[in-house]
Write a structure and sequence with these properties.
Order of helices and strands: HHHEHEHHH
Strand content: 5-15%
Distance between the termini: 14 Å
Number of strands: 2
Number of helices: 7
Structural class: mainly alpha
Helix content: 55-70%
Radius of gyration: 22 Å
């Protein structure tokens, strides 16, 4: 069974990686989901001037969460808008490096491995390809909803971005479901 789990995980990881290339690269979906900062927006100059470290930045947010006046001011700014959540990397970096691709493939492998292990644990109740496929697809759907829809509510991601990201993730889950359902099967002889 370990060989089947490993095979399903490696094959799923590679095919999910290819799906990502097709979705984000060939179809160019990313450019329809993300907008560039307007040229007149001077956020970057301000971050550079204060030499802000790399991290996640949120506006509004009180510098001292225990300061009641700062909390009240934050609440006022929150209601007034605008709201901002931004990933900032001060040191820059090269886009789409081989290391980044390898890390992406590694993440896909870990996801596929964990999913293959779940399918193995549930194998006695999933005797057919169809049942295994639906099981893995449901696992993918749960993780897709959990990791995307909450960001619309809590972090104000646009619904358009959420739906686009969900389309990618569900597509990757579909690929993984096909592979895992075909390879990770209930052993023909039940072991105690």
């Amino acid at each position: 069974m370990a060989g089947r789990i490993l095979t399903a995980s490696v094959l799923s990881a590679v095919l999910m990686f290819v799906w990502g290339f097709v979705f984000w690269g060939l179809l160019g979906v990313g450019s329809s989901l993300l907008q560039p900062l307007p040229a007149e927006l001077d956020v970057l100059a301000s971050l550079r001037n204060v030499q802000a470290p790399s991290g996640m930045y949120v506006y509004p947010m009180p510098a001292d969460p225990g300061d009641k006046e700062a909390q009240a001011e934050c609440a006022r700014k929150f209601e007034e808008g605008p709201l901002l959540r931004m990933a900032y990397r001060a040191e820059g970096g090269s886009p789409m490096t081989p290391k980044m691709f390898a890390q992406g493939l590694g993440i896909n492998f870990v996801v596929a491995l964990l999913t293959s292990l779940l399918a193995t644990l549930a194998a006695s109740g999933l005797p057919t390809f169809g049942k295994r496929f639906v099981f893995v697809l449901l696992v993918s759907l749960v993780s897709t909803i959990w990791s995307n829809v909450g960001d619309v509510l809590w972090w104000f991601h646009s619904m358009r971005f959420c739906l686009g990201n969900m389309a990618y993730t569900i597509g990757a889950g579909l690929v993984m479901a096909l592979v895992v359902a075909a390879i990770v099967r209930r052993p023909s002889v039940a072991a105690d």
